[in-house]
Amino acid sequence: MNNEDNFYVGYGPLPDKDRRFLLKTVPAGLLGLAATGAILGGLAASAGGGRWETGTPVTLKGRMGFHPYPVLWVNGIGHVIAGFGKQSADSYCRPFEGQAVEITGIKITRNQCFMLGVADGDIAPINTIMPPLPKAVFKKNISVAGEVLDAQCFMGIMNPGYGRSHRGCAAQCIRGGQPVFFMMGFRGKDKAGIAHTCGGNGFLLANSDGGKINAEILGHIAVPVIIEARLKQIGNLYQLTYKDDSLGRL
To answer: 210: alpha, beta or left, given left = phi > 0 and alpha = psi -120 to 50?
Structure first.
């Protein structure tokens, strides 16, 4: 060979030519990967601002209602109640329906409001005068696109708590009776200008009689759908009631 410096031997020192090449290309490649990751991360949909405040339980006093999921009404503000894990809180909230109660739970916070994660045994009746439960007020018939979600994960227990990556988890929560939300505008993009529950979090979803929906909606979870429904307002909460044949995939 005319230039032995450029002949690579595994047990010998790195040739100067190869060293110069690597010193230029390796840092450039790492910078390129970092820039690509930053760009792709910026383009990804936001997981949202949900928080599950496990370290700070709160105790609230209010009146228990069902719309059709358990809701604690505190000074006119409704806080939807979820059970712990994948099971609803209905069985231990129902005996207190309409009563003034004291509840200790974990806040699941998103935007301007929060849900409560409540365990069995954390609810007690109290002898306190509370405002009556708000009445549902019909607003209008609407037809909107969006996504069916389990409320607790979307509000903050999971990030992200929507989309196909979350579909299996959402199905288990909804099958277990947890509250169901309809988020208008796929991935939270509101294109219809209609008020949402809790300043943009979604609608409580109910059947045409205002009752719970769970197993019958599993095939429509976490995919783009369109719904024709009656929009009702209950205090600060909004509810959609619909018939089975008025919900379909986009």
So the answer is: left
pTM of the prediction? 0.75
Q: Identify the CA nearest to 163 among candidates 101, 223, 233.
A: 223
Cβ proximity of 65 and 76 under 8 Å: no
pLDDT digit string, tens, across residues 144-158 = 888 898 888 888 787
Q: Which of 61-75, 126-140, 213-227 has the lowest mean pLDDT?
A: 213-227
> What residues make up the domain containing 59?
51-125
Measured in residues, the chain has a length of 250
| CATH number for 78 | 2.40.50.140
Q: What is the mean pLDDT of the chain?
A: 82
**Which comes out higher in pLDDT, residue 9 or 186?**
9
**Residue labelled with tokens 């010998």:** 12
Output the furthest CA–CA distance in the chain (Å, rounded): 99
One domain for residues 147 and 101: no
- Spatial distance between the Cα atoms of 17 and 8, rounded to a whole number of angstroms: 10
Q: Do residues 223 and 201 share a domain? A: yes
Bridge partners for 146 per DSSP: 184, 225
Is 92 in the same domain as 170?
no
With tokens 């505190």, the residue in question is 74
What residues pair up with 115 in beta bridges, in sequence order?
A: 108
